[in-house]
Structures
1.
Amino acid sequence: MGSKTLINLLLLLLITGAHSEVTFNFENRCTYTVWLAASPSIGDADPESGSGTLELFSMPDQWSGSIWARTNCAYNVSYFSCETGDCGSGTIDCQSPPPTYPVTLLNFDIKQSVVSYEVSLNHGHNLPVRIQPEGGSLLGGTGLCPVVDCIEDVSNVCPGNLVATNKDGRYVGCYSACDGLKDPRYCCTGNYSSPQACQSNEYSQKFKQLCKLAHTYPRDNDPPVYRCSRATSYNITFCPS
Ligand SMILES: *[C@@H]1O[C@H](CO)[C@@H](O)[C@H](O)[C@H]1NC(C)=O
Ligand SMILES: *[C@@H]1O[C@H](CO)[C@@H](O)[C@H](O)[C@H]1NC(C)=O
Ligand SMILES: *[C@@H]1O[C@H](CO)[C@@H](O)[C@H](O)[C@H]1NC(C)=O
């Protein structure tokens, strides 16, 4: 553990204050720096996470929202923005508006020691992720709380019309069909909002081929959203392999 990680840990424990039973261990195994982000904010004072760093975060007792990693962030004078996962607020700590897509989302619902968790590609994909609960037991099932992840290189299957590029034209992520094509069929809105009409499609199936444990369209429930009781911590790894 580097000194920066230790300092982060101390800062975070000071800031979060409220006792929580759940710790998130964020590990950045990407070859590049990422900036953690959460909506609603979890008050991370120093979201910058260099390659190879580990950050332990004591989560609030009750929290429901999304966590993701932003890439290639920088200040232009005083405005903070990122190539992917940008919050649009200009500040380093996201101030709630949803991020700019595409972004791989990690969704959680924390109620004391019971945590629901999923990897969602409903707003596309910007980098590989894994959620690994430590200990605990699965509610409504038997045995351990399963890993969920999306660790494959989505750029290989991203259809041309969903590719997101930076200002230099380089691939930075893959839009979901809903965000990229704005079609109610893929967003499961309007006439397509019922469970019968909201189905997988040729785009979501491409994601699913690579990432079987991730949710790939709005009503995707395969696998179900897992609910884990009494895990001591959740290892959240960016670029796990
Ligand atoms: C910084 O970026 C913001 C948002 O993209 C833009 O509105 C602003 O003009 C930029 N400022 C400078 C000094 O480049
Ligand atoms: C929804 O379906 C109805 C009946 O088929 C149709 O008249 C309407 O145009 C559709 N709305 C949209 C937004 O596609
Ligand atoms: C979780 O991360 C910690 C710290 O890196 C590590 O010691 C532990 O083995 C990991 N647990 C699992 C189940 O991978």
2.
Amino acid sequence: MLPYGRQSVDDGDVAAVSEVLTSDWLTTGPWVRTFESELAELAGTQGAVTVTSGTAALHTAYAAIGIGPGDEVVTTPLTFVATASTATMLGATVVFADVTPDTGNLDPDSVSAVLTDRTRVVSGVDYGGHPIDVAGLRGLVADRDTLLLEDAAHSIGGSLDGTPVGSLADVTTFSFFPTKNLTTAEGGAVVATDPEVLRRAATFRNIGMVKDPDRMQRSDEGAWWYEVHELGVNYRLPDVLAALGSNQLTRLGRFKARRTELHRRYTEGLAGLDELVLPPTRDGADPTWHLYSLRIRDGRRRALFDHLRDHGIGVQVNYIPVYWHPLYAAQGYQRGMCPVAEEYYEQEISLPLFPDLLDSDVDRVIELVRGFLGG
Ligand SMILES: *Cc1c(COP(=O)(O)O)cnc(C)c1O
């Protein structure tokens, strides 16, 4: 089965990892610091905090912002459940806003309709790799005590109007899962424009341990002394994996270029079919494409999905609307709440897209889709 996504690991990655395995540091060590400064440079921020997954990055980001019971987090239903569930874990109330039909990203008008005095965060997702509508969302949160968070699990290396993903929102999270644009096996990171948020994120992922003399309540006890002021967890990314991430970063530009090429090949090959909606790129957006999201609007999504799977094409559907999950349905979230996102989901199929995919693989998928539609 041709997968819908796959990591690209080369000899250099293998060498980077094996070198760390025989060094003094298996976990937090020099490679974590290197990888974090490289990520910060890419994102255009003063720092980055690596963690053990994209889910951990979202949990850490929300904890660093300080959300809890009584706070509301507005997000999209067209995402992986973790964008919402990590806020729920902290006791916040998740409020869903609808998406725009072109990019599948949060619709500022829909967000505007659900903002309240309790909205602490608006969490957009760069669906498929396409950056969120930053101008539209910024305008909404500017005069409030509300931060803009960007779940950039799909979009590392992308930019909008020349600004890199990582500097577009107040807080941005990444995932380094193997199907994503860059991998550390499992891994993720948080970047933020406010150094205080970064500091809180670093403390949270390290069990809340404080060792900075300026921040400790007592500092004269001895060199062993540290203090815990707030709850935290162990989300530390091992040095072994940071070395893999750092080496992968040297090829991110190539990954992005190849993903762009393949994305374009699908769009050219599938053009001119009335039943299909192809993913557009808005002016100013320079996406690192994670998904090729094809939509079929004649009601035959399930049939086309099965047709492709039956022919060895490992297609996916991204995403089941988050509030359809029993976790949220049981809390009273109603189907029909975000009709555009639900329609997007009902029409969507993610076609294979990864740097080592061959042109001939893309052509085979195009032929199968065209054959299915009878043209
Ligand atoms: C993959 C993903 C996550 C979670 O990342 P993991 O590394 O798998 O925990 C969060 N949000 C989105 C949009 C994702 O695609």
